[in-house]
Amino acid sequence: MAVQAIKAERLTGALSRETVKKNVAAIHISGKLTLLQRKLSNVLLLNAYDTLTSARSHTIDARTLAMMVGYNSNDIDSLRASLRALAETVAEWDMLDEQGHQEWGVSALLSFAKLKNGVCEYAYSPALAQKLHDPKIYALINVKIQRNFTSGHGLALYENCYRFVRTGSTGWWSLDIFRKLMGVDGSSYYETFKHLNAKIIKPAVAEVNKSSDIIIEPQTRKKGRAVSEIRFLIRENPQMAMFQIDDSDGVRNLAVYKALRGQGISDRLARQWITEHGPEYVQEKLDYVAGQGAVKSRAGYLRAAIKGDYLEPGSSPSAATPPLDPDAQARLDTARARRDAEKAAEAAAFEARTAERKDRARHLDTVETLVSRRNPTQRDADRRQFLSRLDSDLDREHFRQHGWRSALNASAIIAFWQELEPDAFEDTAG
């Protein structure tokens, strides 16, 4: 059960971790949950995880819960319906205990849930809580990535494949087991593999490969002429690394970025190198490679130069290089001086943006702390008051989606909270 690209309101405690441990046995449950119910189950588990076995019940602000799952924060009826479904859905596990004895069990996903005064309180049965919390047998599910999914079957397949990413394969599942994992067991229509493949497997695989951090490939095995088993080969999705690199620093506007792209370096790799090493270092390696004349693979040589820190300090041109005439040397010196000045200006601007970003992050961390101290009624009033100050529809929509971590409204958010509690920002100044 398993949230990506939305950068919602910054959360505290377990919710700030972004990943939730899903027990291997428990991850096979509740295939018949809808997409939103499955997302809800994951967020509730993430919120409760730190005290899963020590607390009798757990609480979360209902609006925060709705926001993380993707509900309209005012759609309490849908939230109630989904909580009811979780309480009515049976989880089943079948596993070996520490002594090697087989253990089978069933439990409702939630033993109870209630909404009161803007707060959702809920609990797990002790037996299920132990299974969900087991540190030896779990998968880590990214609760941001689940935001990308638009179908319950896609998310269910992702959850059941993700825990095998290190081994590279799910291993063979019988079709009966697979139908159960996808929540279509008991349907005569999906008893036919042709229908199962067309309506469940192919769309779910396509969504996992498009929306998550893994790439999966189905393989089937036959008994006689009929397909009897299925497995999924799994590897990490290299494109997902692109989404982890923040371009708020304006990396694409740097001359060194454009030079890298001109050398055939991909957008993702160019931004990664600049972010990791800084624009000046990367430009130095570009200059080094340019001075080596014809090479078999300029991009490959550049990669090696960056990794190996080629061009040691103090290196000088070859003695075999003929001297330039005075006019040519003057033009070369002028070009080098202009390039050095541009590099210095870029480096200074890069450092300034980095410092500004860090200051902004510290201020938004303070905002997060202030928000966490306020009760649900106060939080709702704060959001309405802030929204009333925004003139642009784009700004208001961005705030509705991303809350107090809205990058588009960062300056306005910080100013708003500095007015409310100016003393809180004294420690973050400078």
UniProtKB/TrEMBL annotation:
Domain Initiator Rep protein WH1: from-to ranges: 19-161
Gene Ontology BP terms: DNA replication initiation
Domain of life according to the entry: Bacteria
Signal peptide: none
UniProt-recorded Gene Ontology molecular function terms: DNA-directed DNA polymerase activity
One Pfam family matching this protein: Rep3_C
Name assigned to this protein: Initiator replication protein
Ranges in coiled-coil conformation: none
Source species taxonomy: Bacteria, Pseudomonadati, Pseudomonadota, Alphaproteobacteria, Rhodobacterales
